[in-house]
Amino acid sequence: MEFFTSNILTIVTFTPAAGALLFLFYDREHARSIRISAVIFTLLAFVFSLYLVARFDSSNPDFQFGLKVPWIRSLGIDYSMGVDGISLFLILLTTLLTPLSVLASWSIQDRLKEYFIFLLSLETGMIGVFASLDFFLFYVFWEVMLVPMYFLIGVWGGERRIYAAMKFVLYTMIGSVLMLVAIIALYFIHGNATGIFTFSYPQIQSALASGRLVLRPAIELWLFIAFFLAFAIKVPLFPFHTWLPDAHVEAPTAGSVLLAGVLLKMGTYGLVRFSLPLFPHISHLFAPLISLLAIVGIIYGALVAMVQPDMKKLVAYSSVSHLGFIVLGIFSFTIQGLEGAIYQMLNHGVSTGALFLLVGIIYDRRHTRLIEEFGGLANRMPVYAAFFLIVTLSSIGLPGLNGFVGEFLVLLGTFGVNPSRAAFAAVGVVLSAIYMLWMYQRVMWGRLENDRNAGLPDLAGREHAMLVPILVMIFWMGMYSSYFLRPMDASVMKLMNQTQAGRVEYATNPNFVASK
Fold this sequence. Notes:
The chain is mostly helical and 516 residues long. The chain has two domains: 1-256, no CATH class; 279-508, no CATH class. The chain contains 21 helices and two strands. The chain has helices spanning 2-6, 8-23, 31-55, 88-103, 112-131, 135-156, 161-194, 201-210, 217-234, 243-250, 253-278, 280-306, 311-330, 335-366, 377-380, 382-395, 402-417, 419-444, 461-479, 482-508, 512-515; strands at residues 64-72, 77-83. The protein has a two-stranded antiparallel sheet with strand order 1-2. Helix 4 packs antiparallel against helix 11, helix 14 (335-366) runs antiparallel to helix 19 (461-479) and helix 17 (402-417) runs parallel beside helix 19 (461-479).
């Protein structure tokens, strides 16, 4: 049992990869065996992640379940993994959404074996990003995630899949190269200052926090910009969002679920994990500008979503708006705002992932996502309509459901810093209700005028299995938010203390970059 506990993060991370490796030896004709095996391996990863949550010590702000093994000694690269209150539930979110995505892929027939190899490899990359404590290892997982998503979009996507896949890769690669240069720079700066050349995140962060490593303001500025652009593109923060609608619309359902539910959170997670604690001075300096971009994204994403004729594209632009809330909370530099941002990462993953599952269900039946093609579906598919209503209400932040808690905390934290920012962000909440309820009314209510919708069957057993876990999370997170917030408290408090020096120096000298 001790071996299992000490290696639990490795087990969670590489269980899907083991399944992907096993698929290489499957006969591609055995489609049923491949599908069932994919469900089993992704469910195993989910069960192992539940063990992480059950054994997690909420009072400990440091990384837990740590494992550090020398990898490339000559370069100071370690296989180093750990989890704290910030990353814990993001790993759980990943392992929850992946088996649901497997169930959503039942209609895939072409190159099924390769499809699930890429899907399970993607899960390993996503978990690895949240669990890595070595910059080099983090970057490896960051890039590993890119390859399977490219193929999922490019091979199993829609008509413009090649364009969407290339756009996704090019945008992400630009940010990745900048981040790689910044990581290498940090490696040499730390090595020259301390005599220890290492890619260890805790070691470099500790040296910066203790003052053993001091970055010149100009260097800190450029390093911050490199990391920030990599993460802002991944979020995506306005105006770096243009790759997202194409990727969502062309991706298969599972790709959209994981893209919205997990991959976008890698950007916001990077801002929390790296940008704030490593570069606190510049983070505070740029907070007003980044908050402005977040607010523009909130309102812009909502306004563009309101005019979309395609359900999937509407949900895609809603992500631009919702992710703006998360970035706003992060750069409020308040405990409420930061906890709200992390909670909203989970909320968005659950609610928007569910929306893409629901859109995928109706697309499998009608092979169209155009809102004008529907109307009166509640008459033919009442259970589907009920699920859709609950998810819609959770997405717009109805009290009692998961979406309310995160938005409330973000607005609360932001209001304490700048009431006008909170007021503008609140406009996004109203707009969100308008476009989501408008879509629901157009699709579900009214008369069933399109004859092609008359024979549509309601949800099947597999589709219930996809949606019921989401419904449980929606009500659980809405009614019992303390279960999720309590493990975050200590880690968020520690992070706020790490950024406090930047707050003090910026407050006493807002022009410190120019003055040093």
